[in-house]
Amino acid sequence: MLKMYANGEKNGKPIRLVILGLSYTNLDKLREGMPIKFNGVTAGLSDDIEFMIFSGATEQSMQREIAELIGPETKTHIDPRLKD
Question: Considering the entire predicted model, what is its pTM?
Answer without folding.
Answer: 0.71
